[in-house]
UniProtKB/TrEMBL annotation:
GO-annotated molecular function: glycosyltransferase activity
Keyword Kinase: no
Keywords, in A-Z order: Glycosyltransferase, Transferase
Family: Belongs to the glycosyltransferase 2 family.
Alphabetized CDD domains for the sequence: GT_2_like_c
Descriptive protein name: Glycosyltransferase family 2 protein
Organism: Ilyomonas limi
Length: 340
């Protein structure tokens, strides 16, 4: 066990100078002896790169020739980073001095841990969990992801109810520590997604390959959120629905897809009708478009499926119930109530 393996802190940036000028001074104060900060610039059109060169010369800059989105942007950037671990970190976060050591210690304690994430609280209201990650990502038996501490639009107050280290199904791309060899073994994230679901797909494949995903509550970050797309935007709805159904298809065995995909289609039609009934026609339309593009993907050259396919029922971090049923029908809004 190496107490201080090297960590490459990788920040994917697109026109985020205003976030970088707040985050980078905090990273300079980390209480850890062996880390390097990298900014992977996704072809920004602001002066992010010039700002970094003039103000943070110790930061290593990886400049990409186009905006490749989250998945491919990180894949290209991380291919050039050779530290033992990658810390994937959003630019719209606030971090404390002791961010790294608890997560590194957890990873070093078990070589089968591929990823761990910290507790993610809201920057605007630090007593509450944040939408993207909260206290670790879970998934239900039908492929709908959610978090301990945040289910759909219900976000819990942090009262210490998730202060236990816990094996989960997925870790948030907002902030997570990744074992380099595991990331490269599964060839990183799936480029097609562009944004949303990419880290969940990656964690599904890591779970299927026999690795563990962990939640480390001793490390904490505060996340602003909505930096790429507002939470209620139609574009976010589109990517979430399209990429989620692709994720389920490409990671599930064929015999699971035979029953899962028709059921998911019916449930997503119900969601579209609910949006229509509430007057949100934009979200109704993009759910339809998401399925059109899913079927186009099935016939495209870009279609790729996971090398190892395992049903959710055989993996850790899976709720063996429908989260939609528990939340909307049984009115259980908190993870602790659902798993009682």
């Amino acid at each position: 066990m190496n107490p201080f393996p090297s960590v490459g802190i990788a920040i994917l940036n697109w026109n985020g100078r205003h976030f970088l000028q707040t985050l980078l001074p905090l990273l300079q104060q980390l209480n850890y002896p062996h880390y390097t900060v990298y900014v992977i610039d996704n072809h920004s059109t602001d002066d992010s790169v010039l700002f970094l060169k003039n103000n943070f010369p110790a930061v290593k800059i990886i400049v990409l020739d186009d905006n490749y989105g989250f998945a491919k942007g990180y894949n290209l950037g991380l291919a050039a980073i050779e530290e033992d671990y990658y810390l994937m970190l959003n630019s719209d976060v606030e971090v404390g001095k002791d961010l790294l050591q608890p997560m590194v210690a957890m990873m070093e304690s078990d070589p089968k841990i591929a990823i761990c994430q910290p507790k993610v609280l809201a920057l605007r209201n630090k007593e509450y969990f944040e939408h993207a990650g909260a206290a670790g990502g879970m998934i239900d038996i039908l492929g709908y992801p959610f978090c301990r501490g945040r289910i759909f639009d219900t976000v819990e107050k942090d009262d210490g109810q998730y202060n236990n280290a816990q094996q989960v199904f997925w870790a948030t791309g907002t902030c997570c520590l990744i074992r380099k060899e595991a990331y490269r073994q599964i060839q990183g994230m799936y480029n097609y997604y562009f944004m949303h679901m990419e880290e969940i797909d990656m964690c599904w494949r890591l779970n299927s390959a026999g690795y563990k995903i962990m939640y480390c509550p001793q490390s904490i970050v505060y996340h602003l959120g909505g930096g790429s797309l507002p939470y209620q935007s139609a574009a976010k709805t589109y990517y979430n629905f399209r990429n989620n159904i692709i994720m389920c298809y490409r990671n599930s065995p064929w015999y699971v897809n035979c029953w899962l995909l028709p059921l998911r289609f019916l449930m997503d039609v119900a969601a579209a009708l609910q949006f229509a009934a509430s007057g949100n026609s934009a979200n109704t339309k993009v759910i339809g478009r998401a399925y059109v593009h899913f079927f186009k993907w099935l016939l495209s050259k870009e279609k790729e499926t996971a090398t190892i396919k395992k049903s959710l029922s055989s993996l850790a971090g899976v709720l063996h119930k429908s989260i939609v049923w528990q939340y909307y029908v049984r009115k259980k809004k908190r993870y602790t109530d659902i798993v009682k």
